[in-house]
Amino acid sequence: MTTQELIAEGLQLPVMEAFYTIQGEGKFTGHPAYFIRLGGCDVGCVWCDVKESWEAGKWPVLSIEKIVDGACAFPGRLVVITGGEPLMYNLNPLTKLLKEKGFTTNIETSGAHPYSGDFDWVCFSPKKFKKPHPSIYIEADELKVVVFHPSDFAFAEKHAELVRKDCELRLQPEWSKAEKFTPEIINYVKNHPTWNISLQTHKFMDIP
Ligand code: SF4
């Protein structure tokens, strides 16, 4: 098979970086985790802090065995697959292999592509710049909306109507606008208690 065919099958994937750190955001905040950041994203968020991830062709294409070997080198057994936009790829083979090795699998996605993979926790962070694929709504365990603009509260509520009733709802200030929006988010959550707050605590800890 060619590299393109192997990527299409999900047997090889472009990896921008992979590193062992502490999950800074959302449900698993504070947990040690191995992050696998796949290269490639076509969503185009203006405030994206990993714009270098967008071009998939810039990053080395690795076999899923090699990717999982990297994760196995560390003691933690939580893996977070992120990007870029990881659902641009078929994640079934990678997550199957991770599960076989005993990992808990999490994904962070904008949901802009069809869902794939076997994940224990799906963090769905929709973006205004590319509409989510309908397959994500039933899968989402956590809806995490980044607040960058006052209209993001209405955007968050619109998506909250579409996810499962047991999906956890979180609002997270965009880092560069945190000073402006954190007080508004605090006030919003106090008045709309189905929501809670996610902070990018890794940035406070100065870790990746
Ligand atoms: S979906 Fe994520 S990686 Fe893609 S542009 Fe938006 S913030 Fe950046």
Would you kindly provide a written description of the structure presented here, covering whatever features stand out?
Helices cover 25% and strands 25% of the residues. With 208 residues, it is of the alpha/beta class. The chain is globular. Iron/sulfur cluster (SF4) is lined by residues 41, 43-45, 48, 50, 53, 83-85, 110, 127.
Could you list some keywords that capture this structure?
binds iron/sulfur cluster, 208 residues, alpha/beta, nine-stranded mixed beta sheet, 6 helices
Describe the structure concisely for a colleague:
By secondary structure, this protein is α/β, with parallel strands linked by helices. The chain contains six helices and nine strands.
Helices, strands, pairings?
Layout (H helix, E strand, L loop, with lengths): L2 H7 L2 E11 L9 E7 L22 E3 H9 L5 E5 L9 H9 L3 E6 L11 E4 L17 E6 L4 H9 L7 E6 L4 H14 L3 E3 L3 H5 L3
Parallel strand pairs: 2-4, 4-5, 5-6, 6-7, 7-8, 8-9
Antiparallel strand pairs: 1-2, 1-3
This protein binds iron/sulfur cluster.
| SSE run | HEEEHEHEEEHEHEH
List the ligand species.
iron/sulfur cluster
Q: Major sheet, described briefly?
A: 9 strands, mixed
> What is the helix fraction of residues, given as a range?
25-40%
Gross morphology = globular
Q: Span from first to last CA?
A: 35 Å
User: Structural class of the helices, strands and pairings?
Assistant: alpha/beta
Low-confidence stretches: none
Binding site for substrate: 22-24, 37, 82, 208
Function: Catalyzes the complex heterocyclic radical-mediated conversion of 6-carboxy-5,6,7,8-tetrahydropterin (CPH4) to 7-carboxy-7-deazaguanine (CDG), a step common to the biosynthetic pathways of all 7-deazapurine-containing compounds.
Catalytic activity: 6-carboxy-5,6,7,8-tetrahydropterin + H(+) = 7-carboxy-7-carbaguanine + NH4(+)
Protein name: 7-carboxy-7-deazaguanine synthase
